[in-house]
Amino acid sequence: MKLDQIAKRFRIDKPEAFKLAEHDPDDTAGLSVDKGEAKDLLKEGIERLSDLQEKLYADNRWSVLIVLQAMDAAGKDSLIEHVMSGVNPQGVQVFSFKEPSKEELDHDFLWRIAQRVPERGRIGIFNRSHYEEVLVVRVHPEYLKAQRLPSVGNGQKNSDKDIWHQRFDDIRGFEKHLARNGTLILKFFLNVSRGEQRKRFLDRIEEPGKRWKFSTADVKERALWPNYMEAYEEMIRETSTPEAPWYVVPADHKWFTRLVVAGAMADALESLKLEFPKLEGAALEELQKARKLLTEERDQ
């Protein structure tokens, strides 16, 4: 089975019927491979991505935005490291959105996001994103106070009931605008199980080289797991669109997570029908003159 075929299994094309409980974090699509085979499959996907990225840069009409969302320890950082390992770093931008600064809080919640959208010819990766505003902020509504939202806006009250649907609407509109202007958007929720997260937290504690990644705050957030799962489910249901689809990627096996993301990215980039620019007319004549000069110089 090809990587793009595997990836399509996890794309949410019918969000209205989406139920997170129906997606198994331990799923490997029937694949059972050793580490060597997994590396070979990933290498194949990375080589495709490398070729496509070169065309993306040369074509200079499209940009690509990759959104990664997940619970802690789901493997976002290692995913970026492995899947993008063979891609030219000059063509990739990675941004990690932390707690908003005072300046950012003085603007709407999409302001800081819009500034980091990749330019044409490049791939942008959001390690966490604008979706934090309907995830962490929803699970911790006290964070809304820092945003100093008006009690009334556009004729509607910003009540607890309304605010999330308003933000879903804003996000859909923002992503549709980007897509209409040449940004290919792919969104990946790395679906790790609570049991696997616990195992990875313990690994971080036990291994000196990983301890710096651990925070006791992460353990406290585990107590809110049901709240987060509910928030993720509604987020995906409300914002998986043809312009910006969500992929719910099993994340209990990192090797499989990487294969799915690499396959989805390569498949989507190939759908753009990217081409190297063709030189014609005066530009081609200048190229031929340059070739002649270089050839004569070599023969002297």
Would you spell out the secondary-structure blueprint of this structure?
Layout: H1 3-8, H2 35-59, E1 63-70, H3 76-83, E2 92-96, H4 102-105, H5 111-114, E3 123-127, H6 136-139, E4 152-153, E5 156-157, H7 160-180, E6 183-191, H8 194-206, H9 216-222, H10 225-239, E7 246-250, H11 254-270, H12 281-299
Parallel strand pairs: 1-3, 1-6, 2-3, 6-7
Antiparallel strand pairs: 4-5
Helix pairs in contact: 2-11, 3-11
Q: Which blocks of ≥5 consecutive residues have pLDDT under 50? A: 152-156
Question: How many helices in DSSP terms?
Answer: 12
CATH fold type: Rossmann fold
* CATH architecture descriptor: 3-Layer(aba) Sandwich
Distance between the termini: 55 Å
Assign an overall shape: globular
Q: Strand order, biggest sheet?
A: 2-3-1-6-7
Strand content: 5-15%
Characterization of the model:
- The protein is an alpha/beta fold.
- It has one domain (about 5-300): P-loop containing nucleotide triphosphate hydrolases (Rossmann fold, 3-Layer(aba) Sandwich), CATH 3.40.50.300.
- The chain is built from 12 helices and 7 strands.
- It has helices at about 5-10, 35-60, 75-85, 100-105, 110-115, 135-140, 160-180, 195-205, 215-220, 225-240, 255-270, 280-300, and strands spanning about 65-70, 90-95, 125, 150-155, 155, 185-190, 245-250.
- A 5-stranded parallel beta sheet has the order 2-3-1-6-7, with helices on both faces. A two-stranded antiparallel sheet has the order 4-5.
- β4 and β5 (about 155) form a beta hairpin.
- α2 (about 35-60) runs parallel beside α11 and α3 (about 75-85) crosses α11 (about 255-270).
- The radius of gyration is 22 Å and the shape is globular.
